[in-house]
């Protein structure tokens, strides 16, 4: 089977029932022959072991009882072992392939089916990328549907050239529209593992409501303001002009209404878990909002947000004046503030994450290393590089590579 004269490379493939000590027992035999390991990988799925070792295969090893010893030990351990000789040319081609671009495709949703995986893997392979590894980031799924987790996530690591990356992203976006899933496509580089700042829009992102709509409802201008808000978030209206118009409709609102809205503001699903985990991992957080500071300060207190930039709602004599006293935090200003905060933290923009739902969030989503459209309008989802619609805010942790067990979920 093997030529005793020529040195080469040997692939040792072990499969079977996993048990404690399998890797140690087999590598101990290799150690006796001073075998040099060139590559190694192991995976266990429901106690099913797959272990591969790529080793240097010298003439001395070929003449030794090494393979017989490994076969006997594998038999005693109750696992199967297979040997495949790899040519020097194939090995060198494999080594040269490490210069290929690396990508991460994160598939997440309330559930994941074979149809989802087939669709995603088909798009990935059609783009000329090879799937090198698949990992589950979410908790294990019990068989009983009543006990099943509310979210599932798998991460696919792929490599290749991806010459038509925009077309690939468009195809993956199409899949999210056909199925109730989210798909993130990222470059697997050093910045993905060194992000340190997350900036959030507030209304309909960090909280579930639009504060200005809540205030308008109390002021009796709810329907009028709501229509302007929706049009502005779709990018149909100039944000500063629409904002001033909406605020003017709040004129005469008593300050007690602000306290009423602030007391009942609902956090977005997963917001508290996300912020708590980010803080534990050492991330800085910021609110960059076209909403109001009186709610932002409450969220800053409750969640421990590091930075806050939003609009002041002018109050005189206990009533809202309907005027905007300072520069409005619109889309371009959000992007400028994000750059300023990153610089103050000595971070590159590649280390920054931005999250928002409206058209006025797009400038900061575009300059951030990871820009995420969260439960966003269609125009925003199509323009952002990443989007999440099926899960809560804590789904962002998966895009950072954080597993449920690392975030305190088992």
What do the pLDDT scores average to? Answer: 92
Topology, number of strands: 16
**Which CATH-level-2 architecture of the largest domain?**
3-Layer(aba) Sandwich
* Spatial extent as radius of gyration: 27 Å
List the domain count as a whole number.
3
Low-confidence stretches: none
List the strand order in the largest sheet: 11-10-9-14-15-16
Write structural notes for this entry.
- This protein has 410 residues and is of the alpha/beta class.
- It folds into three domains: 88 residues, 2-Layer Sandwich (Alpha-Beta Plaits), CATH 3.30.70.260; 89 residues, ACT domain (Alpha-Beta Plaits, 2-Layer Sandwich), CATH 3.30.70.260; 211 residues, Rossmann fold.
- Helices cover 38% and strands 25% of the residues.
- It has 16 helices and 16 strands.
- The strands form four sheets. The protein has a six-stranded parallel sheet, with helices on both faces. Strands 2-3-1-4 form a four-stranded antiparallel sheet.
- Helix 15 links the parallel strand 15 and strand 16.
- Helix 5 runs antiparallel to helix 6.
- The longest helix has 14 residues.
- The radius of gyration is 27 Å and the shape is elongated.
- The mean pLDDT is 92.
How are the SSEs ordered, and which strands pair?
Layout: E1 8-17, H1 22-32, E2 37-45, E3 48-57, H2 59-62, H3 66-77, E4 79-86, H4 88-96, E5 101-109, H5 114-126, E6 130-136, E7 152-160, H6 165-178, E8 181-187, E9 197-200, H7 211-219, H8 222-233, H9 239-248, H10 255-263, H11 271-280, E10 284-292, H12 293-303, E11 307-311, E12 315-316, E13 319-320, H13 331-344, E14 352-356, H14 362-367, E15 370-374, H15 378-383, E16 386-388, H16 396-399
Parallel strand pairs: 9-10, 9-14, 10-11, 14-15, 15-16
Antiparallel strand pairs: 1-3, 1-4, 2-3, 5-7, 5-8, 6-7, 12-13
Helix pairs in contact: 1-3, 5-6, 7-8, 8-9
